[in-house]
Amino acid sequence: MKIDKKIIKELSDCLDEFNLTELEYTDKDYKIKVSKNNLSISSQILPNSNNPSPEAVSNITNNKKKGVEVVSPIIGTAYHAPEPGAKKFIEVGKKIKKGETIMIVEAMKTMNHIPSSADGVVKEILVEDGQPVEYGQSLVILE
Q: How far apart, in whole angstroms, are the C-alpha atoms of residue 78 and residue 73?
């Protein structure tokens, strides 16, 4: 079976464009499932049958970030500061300690302080202020 990389690319672009985490496309001969989890995009192409052969499964992974990832323990809305206009908890380049609050995730009107899982320097902040986040989604990368 020949893999049509153009379809996989288009589906991956749709994930970003529509802020989706998973997308599935089915044709009469095959099924393509594209999902995005923790900054990696993986795709599976399976024959449209109940017993796919091992040779028919293909995984593609892109852009795995290096460093310590701090992930969201809950679903909610991420905030960089304790209130609008206040100083942000962290900035890129700031040295932080394990247990220090990196941001707040609001879930059901409750403000949950998200602690750093390790000591380090903030390499990258992966979510925007006010952005919805999912369970297990990477929030920050530490060096």
A: 11
